[in-house]
Amino acid sequence: MSTTTAAPALATEKTAKPPNPARIRRRRRLAQWGFIAPAVIFMALFFGYPLVRNIVMSFQDYSPSTFFTGKSPFNGTDNWSKVFNDELFGKALWHTILFTIGSLIGQFCIGLGLAVFFNRRFPLNGVLRSLILLPWLVPMVVSGVVWRRILDQDTGVLNSFLGTLGLGGDTPWLTSTSMALISVILVNIWIGIPFNMVILYGGIQEVPKELYEAASLDGASAWRTFRSITLPMLRPVITVVLVLGFMSTVKILDLILALTDGGPADSTQTLGTLTYQNSFVQLDFGAGAVVGNILILISAVFAVFYLRANRNEGK
């Protein structure tokens, strides 16, 4: 009886096929694509398509009549030539450079100083850090409107305060061609300080305390400790802060519109506001697409720099 029972089992073992490695790999690959497919579809629909559409539009004669006729004939590089030959484009590019560099330097230096300051323990440390986060939490348009009232030449709080101190109370913060861009930069610095402080503060918290203790035992000064320990250890975090800060600053639109609307006399016109002016004020969508593509290209270059810097830090 046992011999009869064992025979089918042996036959089953002989006929059973081993798992196919190629089929297993295929199933794993399908499972991997199944997990990432939603993200790929989302990126293609909401980022890829608008990007391609914007590039195509920059080579078309796209006008308000296109919305009714559906016709937008290609005009070659006419839109690009029109933008590059416009004097306002050169001014906007220069203002964008000044605005971005000034904002990044101010935000980073003050944010780093506050991060080092709050790294020490003292009463109300957490409360003060929470209050500093408020400019970052308020929508940028709201911040722009509030600061426009503060910087008003006639009824602004800042001029009234300076007048009581005898420092002059009639400074044209937003109406002077020489002061408007500086004022916008200062407001943007105020908005960006919390982001820099939070990221840099988190980076400082990750620095091993043993390094500071060793520096203290060696008699190193506070400046020497900061220069030799804090800054080198913060290098990856600094890269992240500066690159992300650049990518968010170079395309700012709502703050400038709320403060100066690109004026006076185009003294605060940047690439972001120029895109808006071309597309939604002059209704020249082709020229607006060209400036938008330039902004995308600039951001892409710094995104590549950010990824390569992170890769080098990982090695």
Question: What distinguishing features does this structure have?
Answer:
mainly alpha
Report on this structure.
By secondary structure, the chain is an all-alpha fold. It is 74% helix and 0% strand. The protein has helices at residues 2-15, 21-57, 66-69, 78-84, 87-118, 125-132, 134-137, 140-150, 157-164, 180-205, 209-217, 222-233, 235-249, 254-259, 271-281, 285-314. α5 packs across α15 (271-281) and α10 (180-205) runs antiparallel to α13. The relative contact order is 0.11.
How widely separated are the two ends? 67 Å
Give the overall shape.
Answer: flat
Q: Secondary-structure element sequence?
A: HHHHHHHHHHHHHHHH
Helix fraction by DSSP (H/I, runs of at least 4):
over 70%
Summarize the structure.
This protein is an all-alpha fold. 74% of the residues lie in helices and 0% in strands. The radius of gyration is 29 Å and the shape is flat.
Element layout with pairings:
Layout: H1 2-15, H2 21-57, H3 66-69, H4 78-84, H5 87-118, H6 125-132, H7 134-137, H8 140-150, H9 157-164, H10 180-205, H11 209-217, H12 222-233, H13 235-249, H14 254-259, H15 271-281, H16 285-314
Helix pairs in contact: 2-16, 4-16, 5-10, 5-13, 5-15, 10-13, 13-16, 15-16
